């Protein structure tokens, strides 16, 4: 997903614009998420991809866009989260924190609450006890996992290539030094 694709979609922007204008949401831009993206980039990716699917399936595109944007609405990084919520699994507890934060930001429908709090039901045994109630919740769950995987894997080939080139250059330089001293 490119920045321009969601930014240029006026229907989508009309649904989330009020949320994007909030400083609390903008602060997600400063938090690294899935190693190579920010939490805001990830949330926008989940939101917009889910929104496009919901439109094609004639589902509630407003709720899926808004809840998709707020599904990871917490401001702690993994280490801070672990310290603040000692004894809780990040996978099973961060949806509850995100839901509490989202409720402080805006009024939420039952559907939006379900989407946010159930988006990790596949990733944690504690979450599987209460399955999502709505089709939209399943969509955000699957899209979240897709986006997370894509965010982690997309930069890897370039990083691997860069690392291999760096190591090859070091080996080459050591060989040149060894040959020069002999």
UniProtKB/TrEMBL annotation:
Ranges for domain HD/PDEase: 35-158
UniProt-listed InterPro entries: HD/PDEase_dom, HD_domain
Highest taxon of the lineage: Bacteria
Official protein name in the record: HD/PDEase domain-containing protein
Protein species of origin: Desemzia incerta
């Amino acid at each position: 997903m490119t920045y321009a694709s969601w930014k240029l979609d006026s229907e989508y922007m009309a649904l989330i614009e009020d949320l994007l204008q909030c400083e609390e949401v903008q602060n997600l831009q400063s938090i690294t998420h899935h190693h190579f993206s920010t939490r805001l980039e990830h949330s926008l990716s989940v939101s917009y991809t889910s929104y496009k699917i919901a439109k094609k399936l004639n589902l509630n595109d407003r709720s899926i866009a808004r809840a998709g944007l707020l599904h990871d609405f917490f401001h702690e990084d993994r280490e801070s989260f672990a310290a603040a919520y000692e004894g809780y699994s990040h996978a099973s507890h961060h949806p509850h924190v995100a839901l509490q934060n989202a409720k402080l930001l805006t009024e939420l429908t039952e559907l939006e609450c379900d989407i946010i709090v159930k988006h990790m039901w596949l990733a944690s045994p504690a979450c599987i006890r209460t399955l999502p109630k709505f089709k939209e919740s399943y969509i955000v769950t699957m899209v979240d996992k897709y986006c997370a995987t894509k965010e982690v894997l997309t930069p890897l080939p370039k990083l691997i290539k860069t690392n291999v080139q760096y190591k090859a250059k070091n080996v080459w330089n050591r060989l040149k030094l060894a040959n020069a001293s002999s």
